[in-house]
Each structure stands twice: as structure tokens, then as C-alpha cells.
């Protein structure tokens, strides 16, 4: 029952490897890992490797 303080002071483990983001990645957070790089979400990973999310349309 003494976990409240822990939740309020989340430990910063790393920073998003996307230089345009560089968000704090805290203990217990879900992050995306590529090699030794950590990204705060899939969008940052995609941007860093030059991938984009598209909607695939039929008919081609
Ligand atoms: Zn990020």
C-alpha cells in the first residue's frame, strides 16, 4: 500500500531515439525497441526508419 509515491515519481529509463521527439521513457511504460534503440511508440519508430503508415486500398 506504499506504491502511490512510486507511481508519482516514475523513473526515467531512457529517451525516445527519435530525435524530433526525445520523450522520456519511464519505468513500466510500453515502448518499441529496435536493436538498442527505444522509441516511445510505433509512430516514432516508423518515422526514425523512414516508414509511414498507410491505408491499403484494394483494386491495384
Ligand atoms: Zn517518441
UniProtKB/TrEMBL annotation:
Superkingdom of this entry's organism?
Bacteria
Descriptive protein name: Uncharacterized protein
Species: Paenibacillus polymyxa (Bacillus polymyxa)
Amino acid at each position: 500500500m506504499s506504491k502511490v509515491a512510486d507511481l508519482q515519481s516514475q523513473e526515467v529509463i531512457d529517451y525516445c531515439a527519435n530525435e524530433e521527439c526525445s520523450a522520456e521513457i519511464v519505468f513500466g511504460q510500453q515502448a518499441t525497441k529496435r536493436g538498442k534503440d527505444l522509441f516511445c511508440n510505433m509512430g516514432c519508430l516508423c518515422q526514425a526508419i523512414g516508414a509511414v503508415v498507410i491505408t491499403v486500398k484494394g483494386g491495384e
